[in-house]
Amino acid sequence: MPYLRPVPADQSAPHPGADTGEATGERPVPEQDPRVQWAATLAVIVAGALTIRPMGLSGQGLAVAVLFVVNAASLLARRLPEHRVPPRLALVWLTLGVVAAAALIGVSSSGTSYLFAFFLAGHIGYRLETRPALVLAGLCSLLCGAVLYLSLGPEQDPLAWTFGLTTGIPVLIGIVNRTQRRAVRAAIEAAGSAERAARAEARTAVLTERGRIARDVHDVLAHSLAGINMQLELADALIDTGDLNKVREAHEKAHDLVKESLKQAQWTVHALREDTLPLPQSLAAMLASSGHRDALTVTGTERRLPAKVVQNLLRIAQEALTNAARHAPGGAVEVELTFAAASTTLRIRNRPATGELGAGAGSGMGLIGMRERVALLGGTLTAGPVAEGPHRGDWQVEAVIPQ
Predict the structure, then answer these.
(1) Within 13 Å, how many C-alpha atoms sit on residue 267's CB side?
(2) How far is the C-alpha of 295 from the C-alpha of 17, rounded, in Å?
(3) For 18-62, what is each residue's pLDDT tens digit?
(4) Measured between alpha carbons, how far is 398 from 337 in angstroms, rounded to an integer?
(5) Three-class DSSP labels, the chain
(6) Distances in Å between the alpha carbon of 355 and those of 111, 153, 363, 395?
C-alpha cells in the first residue's frame, strides 16, 4: 500500500542530494510505507541476534558482538532522511557497513549474518548514484566472496563461497526504486510548475480585466462628471449676478447630465457581465432605454459571439449613442448589425440635430477609446460624416470585427 508523506505547503526547495518527500515542495511524493521498512530491518536484526554465533563478552564472541552492533547500526541508519545526510557521508557510512558485514560473515561460525550484506547492498542502490552504487556493491560481493573462500577453504564446494558474490545483486533493486522515485518526483514538480504557470496566467487575466473595467468606468465618468462640474461651477458663478433663471437652467442641465450618467453606468455594468444577453438583444434593450425603439436592423445569420466581443461592441454602441445625444439632440438614430461569413459589423448613424445642443463638451476621448477597443479585437473603426448615398450628411461610426 503506497504511503504519502505530507509536506507543508510553505516548505523551501530541497537539498540537492535530497531524495525524500520532506523537502520536495507542495506535493507529496509516493514512497514505500516506512512501517514495512522498519519491520524488515528489525526482522533482520532479531534474526541475527537469535542465530549468529558465537556471541559473547570475550574472544571471538566479543568480536562477533561488536560487528553485530555495527551492522545493526548501519542497517538502522538507512531510515535517516536523505536530505540530512550528505552524499560523501552516506558513501563513508555504507562503505564501513559493507566492510563490517563482510567481517561479520568471516568471524561468525553460523547464523544469518549474510542478510546484513544483502540489505545494505539494496540500500546502496537506493541511496547513492548509479556509478558509485555499482562500485560499492561490487566491493561488497568481492569482500563477502573472498571472506567465505578464505574461511571455508578451496576444498569446499564452490557454491558455498560463490554465494558471497551474490550479496551485491540487490543493488539493482535499489537503483530501480531510486529511478522510479525520481521519475515520480519529476512528474510532480512538472505538475507544480504547470500549476504555478496557470496561477500566474490567471493573475495576468485578472489584471487585464481590471484594466478593462477601469477603462470602461473612465469612459463613463470622465465626460459626464466634467459636464456636471462645469454646470455646477456656472451655477455658482451666476448666483452672484442674481439671475435665478440662468441658475435654475444650469442646475437643470446638471441634473440631466446626472440622469444620463446613471443610465450610462447601468449599461456599463450590463456590458461587463459575462452572462450578458446576445448582442442583438442587448443592443435592442440599450436603444429602447435611450428612446430609440425599433432603430436596430440585423442582417445575416446571427451567431453567438465571444463575451469579449459583445462587451466591447456594446461599449462602442453606448459611446456612439452618448455622442449622438450630446452633439445631435433630436436627430434620428439607426443601428445596423451585420453578420457576414468573415466578420461582424456594427454601424451607428445619427442624423443632424433638431434640438438645442447640450452644454457638456465631453472629454474628447470617446473616439480614442472606441478605436482602442476595436484594436484589441483585431478590427477596424471608422467615424465621420457620410459623404454620399441616401444617408449623406449623417454621422456614422462603423466597427468591423473579423471572425
Answers:
(1) 29
(2) 73
(3) 444 444 444 555 566 788 889 999 999 999 999 999 999 999 999
(4) 10
(5) CCEECCCCCCCCCCCCCCCCHHHCCCCCCEECCHHHHHHHHHHHHHHHHHHCECCCCCHHHHHHHHHHHHHHHHHHHHHCCHHHCCHHHHHHHHHHHHHHHHHHHHHCCECCCHHHHHHHHHHHHHHCCHHHHHHHHHHHHHHHHHHHHHHHCCCCCHHHHHHHHHHHCCHHHHHHHHHHHHHHHHHHHHHHHHHHHHHHHHHHHHHHHHHHHHHHHHHHHHHHHHHHHHHHHHHHHHHCCCCHHHHHHHHHHHHHHHHHHHHHHHHHHHHHCCCCCCHHHHHHHHHHHCCCCCCEEEEECCCCCCHHHHHHHHHHHHHHHHHHHHHCCCCCEEEEEEECCCEEEEEEEECCCCCCCCCCCCCCCHHHHHHHHHHHCCCEEEEEECCCCCCCCCEEEEEEEEC
(6) 113, 122, 22, 16
Residue 208, CA distances (Å) to 135, 275, 334, 345 in order: 58, 19, 33, 25
Average pLDDT over residues 186-204: 91
Per-residue model confidence as pLDDT tens digits over 309-328: 888 898 889 888 888 887 88
Q: Which three cell numbers stand for residue 145?
A: 566472496
User: What integer best gives the mean pLDDT of the chain?
Assistant: 83
* pLDDT score for 266: 67
| Cα–Cα distance list, 8 to 23, 85, 195, 197, 243 (Å) | 9, 21, 17, 20, 75
Percent of all residues in the chain with a pLDDT value above 90, rounded to a whole number: 46
Residue 349 · residue 334 · CB < 8 Å:
yes
> What does pTM read for this prediction?
0.53
Cell numbers linked to 148:
567465505
Per-residue pLDDT of 47-105, as tens digits, reads 999 999 999 999 999 999 999 999 999 999 988 988 899 999 999 999 999 999 999 99
Q: Are 168 and 180 contacting, i.e. CB atoms less than 8 angstroms apart?
A: no
User: Which is nearest to 224 in space by CA: 396, 383, 358?
Assistant: 358
